[in-house]
């Protein structure tokens, strides 16, 4: 059987392919989104396990694959079709996503749905190089930077650097997935580890969204994925609105509080007093007046209330046993 991503495709079409068509192994690659096969002295292209299209006039003796394209002694092929107006002698791969001849650069990533090599307009093949490893979709020449075959406007190729989580920068600007992040300084930009935010030393950004009123100089991790600066508390790259940063505390089991309120999984426990709030377990808590099951007060005998140590949704007092805060006997 033909395996892709470690899974055997065992339907009837694949059984037919394994018997009648021989996979040209060097063409079995991710970027071309299809493979070439030989059968009875001819070459076939398949982008579907049940469909094999004859590659007309392909020479089986000289036929070779290279990343997302193929060639023989007369032509260059992309997705099983010969490519017109391309110089075979100077043709070369530039990583997996790009290729070039002595005049033009082309984008050939598998997500190119046109069925044709896409010419990268304005790219100079003589100076065109990848930015990053062979899997990168970023590239540059002396004048521009490209992502997925498109120019990144305003980019400076000499100082352009690909970072993490979709970010990149040059000496002037910050980019997120190839789009300039307005209001961020590129020269000092860094990606902050484990929180998907970036900082230019003054402000913070989450993707294209600059977080207004953020303070990069005081920004730091607290715990459990929470971050804090002098002005805000952050979780998953977003500002938690309405929370006082200076008094915010992470408790346990998803409980947090500030000077004004207590939260369970970021939902406010309306009746809880933050000044004397105590976590009793995964789902129970109390202040000086009330006992709570998650976000709601339990009508119980406060003095005799106990949490079951084995089952987190059970509790009891001198009068009742409670299941999820509701008396059951």
How would you sum up this structure, described in words?
The chain is mainly beta and 329 residues long. 3% of the residues lie in helices and 36% in strands. It has 1 helix and 42 strands. The strands form 11 sheets. A 4-stranded antiparallel beta sheet has the order 3-4-5-6, with helices on one face. Strands 7-8-9-10 form a 4-stranded antiparallel beta sheet, with no helix packed on it. A 4-stranded antiparallel beta sheet has the order 11-12-13-14, with no helix packed on it. The longest helix has 9 residues. The radius of gyration is 30 Å and the shape is elongated. The N terminus is likely disordered.
């Amino acid at each position: 059987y033909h395996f892709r991503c470690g899974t055997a495709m065992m339907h009837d079409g694949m059984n037919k392919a394994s018997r009648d068509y021989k996979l040209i192994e060097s063409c079995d690659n991710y970027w071309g989104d299809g493979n070439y096969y030989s059968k009875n002295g001819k070459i076939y292209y398949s982008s579907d396990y049940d469909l094999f299209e004859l590659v007309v006039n392909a020479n089986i003796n000289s036929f070779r694959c290279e990343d997302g394209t193929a060639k023989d002694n007369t032509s260059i092929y992309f997705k099983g079709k010969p490519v017109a107006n391309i110089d075979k002698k100077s043709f070369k791969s530039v990583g997996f996503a790009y290729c070039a001849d002595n005049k033009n650069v082309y984008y050939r990533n598998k997500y190119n749905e046109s069925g044709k090599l896409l010419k990268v307009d304005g790219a100079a093949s003589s100076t065109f190089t990848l930015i990053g490893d062979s899997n990168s979709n970023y590239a540059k020449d002396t004048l521009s930077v490209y992502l997925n075959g498109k120019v990144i406007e305003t980019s400076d190729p000499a100082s352009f650097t690909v970072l993490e989580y979709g970010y990149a920068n040059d000496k002037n600007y910050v980019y997120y997935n190839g789009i300039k992040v307005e209001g961020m300084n590129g020269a000092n930009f860094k990606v902050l580890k484990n929180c998907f935010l970036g900082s230019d030393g003054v402000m913070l950004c989450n993707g294209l969204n600059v977080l207004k009123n953020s303070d990069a100089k005081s920004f730091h991790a607290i715990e459990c994925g929470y971050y804090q600066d002098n002005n805000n508390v952050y979780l998953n790259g977003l500002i938690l609105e309405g929370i006082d940063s200076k008094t915010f505390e992470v408790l346990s089991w998803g409980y947090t509080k500030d000077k004004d309120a207590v939260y369970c999984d970021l939902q406010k426990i309306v009746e809880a007093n933050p000044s004397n709030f105590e976590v009793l377990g995964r789902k129970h808590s109390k202040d000086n007046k009330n006992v709570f099951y998650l976000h709601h007060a339990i009508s119980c005998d406060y003095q005799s209330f106990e949490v079951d140590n084995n089952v987190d949704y059970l509790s009891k007092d001198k009068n009742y046993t409670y299941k999820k805060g509701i008396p059951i006997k």
